[in-house]
């Protein structure tokens, strides 16, 4: 199954939060979309997020202009937002402006 995704990274006004572990209160307005694409998913969201982590750390798409996927980045996948934390991902349930 093909799933659409987006990679969001902190905008320059919030670079002080770059590479910080998850904490309550982060806002969608702090982020800019730096990439969107499609990925084949076997249906397991966490496995798909890990696949994206590998892609955006070891084999960037040629048109990707952000930094490698890392702590503090957000992935939009399957209608939900996921925060890339120190260990795995945290689903963001209150990711608003």
What report would you give on this structure?
With 97 residues, the chain is an alpha+beta fold. The chain is built from one helix and five strands. The protein has one helix spanning 45-58; strands at 2-10, 31-40, 74-77, 80-84, 89-92. A hairpin with a 4-residue loop joins strand 4 and strand 5 (89-92). It is globular and about 35 Å long. The N and C termini lie far apart (31 Å).
The stretches of 5 or more residues where confidence is low (pLDDT under 50) are: none
Helix count equals 1
Largest sheet: 5 strands, antiparallel
Radius of gyration: 13 Å
Rounded average pLDDT: 90
* Number of separate domains: 1
Measured distance between first and last alpha carbons: 31 Å
Q: What structural class results from the helix and strand content?
A: alpha+beta
- Strands of the widest sheet, in order across it, are 2-1-3-4-5
Outline: globular
Content of β-strand: 25-35%
Count of DSSP strands: 5
